[in-house]
Write a structure and sequence with these properties.
The chain has 498 residues and is α/β, with parallel strands linked by helices. The strands form six sheets. Strands 1, 2, 3, 8, 9, 12, 15, 16, 19 and 20 form a ten-stranded mixed β-sheet that branches. Strand 2, helix 5 and strand 3 form a beta-alpha-beta unit. The radius of gyration is 22 Å and the shape is globular.
Length: 498
């Protein structure tokens, strides 16, 4: 692969050892993991593991290779601060962490030992945010977190509004954990009980619509909270005897048990299209999938886990997350528009193919085999569209590494411009349809953003979330363009020459 200035800046900032070239990085990673064929796939941009594997494989000290972790928080000061300590270790090594704060007693509740009153989960969410701020991941990037709270927690309204002001709690994404009971109450416009998790007693009864309207308004305002459909997630829980899945990683694609981690890797569909654009190279795609599964299993074996509890939980279920990136670019090469129904038919076919081959190669070792991550950094390395997202713009401006980079889509000029369907050209319904179609063939979940234009209404946000729930998505995230002052990627002027 050839790399432009932005790709090289990213590689030097985060991935390359001193004096190392990109090809040297791929060689180092392949040798450390012990899958020789993966070096060729990485060099060709056909498969790429998650960032911590690229950063840390072969690094002196802690070679922590997992991307995703979920840690428990129980209703005691010891648990809260032990988990914060474990979080710091994970962030230092390059991982991201997810938490569900719903076990914590509500603000104003009794603290029997001191005869005082509890400060509530949002106060500890802020403590974790500050803790993250002072620990850089391996000196390379800041930590990322997911904070969740159930809809029936007494502090749900405070949680929903804790990031109203831009810049607050910067190191967390937040999502609300929504169960079927809440959605049923909403459907009937009924009241809904908020439960004190310490006692199990009803704390307060409120209108389900009041909670829902606040969720939708906040999401319209700045893209948070996201939505985690907890009962849908657990309908497909492969190990209910081990516990309920109640939290996920920062980007939402990996629902995990307490102390579990997951290693991710993605196959680049764009680089598996035949040169004549007639179809995928199905034989080559199968080869990449099988090598990817072997690679990720070897990552588990070679991993140096931050604490014993994580190693024990991870090796109990051996969860891996093989996914895809370059989906939108592969459609361009195949002559199919992202917003065409033919794209959905192909999504069903290609992900079904990958799911079958990945499970065949796993041969029962892994309780979870497939997951679709956002692939933000690794899709930049491979110069392809991220995950299953449409491209954001034909020309993008990225404000990163202290520099502004303007990047033109690499396929422009080679294909009919009508095929370049951008994120804001796609209706919310088609965004959801893509996610729901891929989800049929994915064990865990999918990181997917429903990108909405700046003019989108709150009603559109509401209908999009309801549709995602009804279509079997395990969660959803929506973002209305320019709803935040700070936006990493912005689209160039609509009338600019491309």
């Amino acid at each position: 692969m050839k790399f432009d200035d932005y790709q090289l800046a990213l590689l030097k900032q985060r991935y390359l050892f001193p004096g190392e070239t990109p090809a040297g990085m791929f060689r180092r990673v392949a040798r450390y993991i012990g899958v020789a064929e993966s070096e060729t796939l990485m060099n060709e941009g056909k498969f790429m593991p998650n960032s911590p594997t690229l950063m840390n494989a072969g690094r002196e000290g802690l070679s922590q290779l997992s991307a995703c972790f979920v840690l428990p928080i129980y209703d005691s000061i010891d648990s809260i601060y032990d988990t914060l300590k474990h979080t710091a270790k994970i962030h230092q090594s390059g991982g991201g962490t997810g938490f569900n704060f719903s076990n914590l007693r509500p603000k104003g509740d009794l603290v029997s030992r001191t005869k005082g009153v509890a400060s509530g989960p949002v106060s500890f969410l802020r403590v974790y945010d500050v803790g993250t701020e002072v620990v850089k991941q391996g000196g390379l990037r800041r930590g990322a977190n997911m904070g969740m709270l159930r809809t029936d927690h007494p502090d749900i309204m405070e949680f929903l509004t804790c990031k109203t002001q831009e810049g607050q709690i910067r190191n967390f994404n937040i999502s609300v954990s929504i169960d079927d009971k809440f959605m049923d109450a909403l459907q009937g416009n009924r009241d809904y009980d908020l439960i004190n998790p310490r006692t199990g007693d009803v704390w307060e009864t409120v209108g389900s619509r009041e909670i829902w309207d606040k969720m939708i308004a906040q999401t319209w305002n700045n893209g948070e909270p996201g939505f985690f459909f907890v009962d849908t997630v657990n309908k497909f829980n492969p190990h209910p005897e081990l516990g309920k899945l109640e939290a996920c990683n920062p980007c939402g694609e990996s629902a995990l048990l307490p102390y579990e981690s997951c290693v991710l890797g993605s196959v680049n569909l764009a680089n598996h299209v035949l040169d004549d654009g007639s179809d995928y190279d199905w034989e080559g795609l199968e080869h990449s999938v099988r090598i990817g599964v072997d690679f990720l299993n070897n990552v588990i074996d070679r991993n140096q886990f931050p604490i014993p509890e994580i190693e024990e939980a991870t090796k109990r279920t051996n969860k891996i997350g093989l996914g895809v990136m370059g989906w939108a670019d592969s459609l361009i090469k195949l002559g199919i528009r992202y917003d065409d129904k033919e794209a959905l038919k192909l999504a069903d076919r290609v992900m079904g193919f990958i799911q079958t081959r990945a499970h065949d190669q796993s041969d029962g070792r892994n309780m979870i085999v497939t997951t679709i991550a956002p692939t933000g950094s690794i899709s930049i390395i491979c110069n392809c569209s991220s995950g299953i997202e449409p491209n954001f713009a034909k020309v993008e401006t990225r404000n990163q590494f202290g520099t502004t980079y303007t990047r033109k889509h690499p396929l422009l000029g080679q294909y009919d411009e009508d095929l370049f369907v951008m994120a804001h050209d796609v209706t919310w319904a088609m965004h959801v349809a893509h996610q729901a179609t891929f989800q049929k063939h994915v064990d865990n979940a999918i990181s997917k953003t429903i990108n909405l234009p700046a003019t989108a209404s709150m009603h559109e946000v509401e209908i999009a979330v309801r549709t995602a729930y009804n279509m079997g998505c395990k969660g959803t995230t929506l973002y209305r363009d320019r709803s935040r002052k700070e936006q990493v990627i912005v689209k160039e002027c609509e009338h600019c020459s491309v």
